[in-house]
Amino acid sequence: MSTNILAFLSLLPIISVAIFLVMLRWPASRAMPIAYAVAAGLAYFIWEVAATKIMAASVNGLIVAGTLIYIIFGAILLLNTLQQSGAITAIRQGFSDITPDRRIQVIIIAWLFGSFIEGSAGFGTPAAVAVPLMVGLGFPAMAAVVAGMIIQSTPVSFGAMGTPILVGVGTGLSADPEMLAYAAARGFGEYEHFLEFIATKVALMHAMAGTFIPLLVASVMTRFFGAKRSFAEGFQVWQFALFAAFAMTIPYLIVATFLGPEFPSMLGGMIGLAIVVSTARAGFLIPDKTEAWDFESPEMWEADWSGEQKYQNAAQPKSRNMSLIKAWSPYVFVAGLLVLTRLRSVNLEAYLRADHPSITWSWPAIFGSDISASFQPLWSPGTIFILVSLITIALHRLSFAKYKLALSSSFKTLLPASTALVFTVPMVQVFLNSSGGAAGFEQMPLALAEGVAQLAGAAWPFFATFIGGLGAFVAGSNTVSNMMFSLFQFGVGERILVDPTWIVALQAVGGASGNIICVHNVVAASAVAGLIGKEGAVIRKTLLPFFYYALMTGSIGYGIVNLDNGPLNPGFAVSAMIVFVFAYHIVKYNRIQTG
C-alpha cells in the first residue's frame, strides 16, 4: 500500500472526530464512540492487528480514563469544599479589590497561575485547578474552559518538572543507539546535556510565540463571551497582556538556559505571578474601574455557556470575613504538595511510585499482549486534591454536613462526564497501539507523519509543529507525542539537510500547542467545570489559537534552519506578518477606544 494511501487511512479517526465533534457539534459521548469504532476497524481490517491487542489497548484506555476521572473528581471536590466554606467568595472579593475587570483576572489566573501549576504537575492539572477557580469566581463555564485550554501551550513543554523533554524527547531519541554518538560528536559528553541543549531551543521559540498568548486569551474571551462579541475589547488591554507575557517568558527563558528543563514553567509562572499581582495591586496598566469589562448577567448568557454546577447563580455562602491568605491556603497546599512530590532532590517519587502491589496497581501483558496498564494513586494529583479538601475541613472550620454536600455534588457532576472519556481514551490507545499487525505497517501516527513528510519536502519545518500538535491532539499528551515523533522528526531534519535538533525542538513546541485542542483534555476540563456535551464548541473556539501557535513557531523554525539563505526567507516573512497582524489590530482597536 502506498505511503499516501496509508497516511489518508491513518487520518480517518481524526477526520471522524472533526466531522462529528467539531462540525456537526455532537457531544463527545456520541462522537467518540464512532471515532473509536473507526480506529478499531482500521486496526483490525487494514493494519491486521490481533483482536486481543485491540481489546488490550481498549482496556488500557479504560484504565487511563479512570485515572483522569479520579483527578477530575478531586478537583471538583476541592472546589465544592471551598464553595461551601465561603473561600470562593473571599477569593472573588480579593480579585475585585485588585480589579473587577475579567480580562485582567483571566490573564492572572489562567496564564500565570496556570503556568505555575503546569510546571509543577502537568498532564492537564492546570485545567483541574484554574478552570474551576474561574467558574467559582463567576466566569461562564465555557469561557473558563476555553481560557484554560489556550494557555496549554507555552508552559507545556516544561510541565511536570520537564517531563515532555526529559522523558518524551529523551526516550523518543534514545530509541536510536547512534544518538549518544551523535550527541558526543556535537560536544555533549552526557545525554542529559544534549537534552538541555534542545530544551533551550524549545524555550526560545515558546518565549516568542507565548508573547501573544495572554492577549489571545483576553480577546477570545471578549469575542465569544462579551455582550459586543468583539475582539476589540480584549485588545484594549494589550499593554497589561504583553507585560504579563514578558513577566513570565523572560524568567522562563533564563531558567531554561541556565537551569535546564525542569523549572522554566514553574519558576516562570511563579515569578510572573509575583510581579504582575504586586504591580496590578498598585494599578499599573490596569483599566479604571469605570472601564472594567465584565460578562453580562447570567440570565443573558447563551444556554451552552453554563455547566451543571451553576456556581455563578448559586447563593454564595458567607465568607465569615475570611482572610485572603486563609481562602487561598488550600491552593497553596495543592501547589506546595505538587512541587514537593515532584522535586528530584526530595525524591518522594521513589516511595509514591514504588513497584509494590499496594502502591502501584498494575496489569502487565493485558490479554497476553505487549500492552500493560498501571495506576499509582499516591502519585496522582487527584489524591492531593482530595487530601487538601480534607485539610480544608479543619482549616476553614467546615461542618461535616457541608462537606457531605460538597461530596454529593461532586459525584453528581462526575457521572455524566465519565461517558465521553470512556470512549475517548480507548480510541487514542487503539490509534497509538496499531503497530505489530500482520500487514506490517507502522502505527497510524507514524504512517500519517510519513505521508506528510513525503509531500512537504524542504518546507517540512512549517509542518513539523502541526505533526507534533496532531500527536498531542490524539494522544492527549505532549510527552507521548514527543515519544512517538522525536526520532522521526530528527530523521526528517537530516534528510532535508538542516540541523535536526531544531526540528526536534519544533516537534516539542508543536506537541505543546496540540494541547490547546486535545480532545480528552477538553473533555476533562469540561467535566471539571460541569460542562457536559459541549466539547466541540470548545475546540472550535480554540482552533485559532492553535493555528497561530503552530504556524508562528513553525515559521520561526523554518527561518532559523534556513538562515544560510539570509534573514529574508519565507519563515521569517510569515512570522513577521503574524506580528504585523497583532500590531495592526492593537493600533486599530485602541483608536476605536480613544476615538
SSE map:
Layout: H1 3-23, H2 28-45, H3 51-85, H4 87-98, H5 102-120, H6 125-136, H7 141-150, H8 159-174, H9 179-185, H10 191-210, H11 213-225, H12 232-235, H13 238-258, H14 264-281, H15 324-342, H16 349-352, E1 361-363, E2 373-375, H17 381-395, H18 400-432, H19 444-456, H20 460-475, H21 478-495, H22 500-513, H23 519-528, H24 535-561, H25 570-594
Antiparallel strand pairs: 1-2
Helix pairs in contact: 1-2, 1-19, 1-24, 2-18, 3-6, 3-17, 3-18, 3-23, 4-15, 5-6, 5-8, 5-11, 5-13, 5-14, 6-7, 6-23, 7-11, 7-23, 7-24, 8-10, 8-21, 10-13, 10-22, 10-24, 11-13, 13-14, 15-17, 18-23, 19-20, 19-21, 20-21, 20-22, 20-24, 21-22, 22-24, 24-25
Would you mind describing this structure in some detail?
There is one protein chain. This protein is an all-alpha fold and 595 residues long. It has 25 helices and two strands. Helix 18 runs antiparallel to helix 23. The protein is globular and about 65 Å long. The model is unreliable at 311-315 (pLDDT under 50).
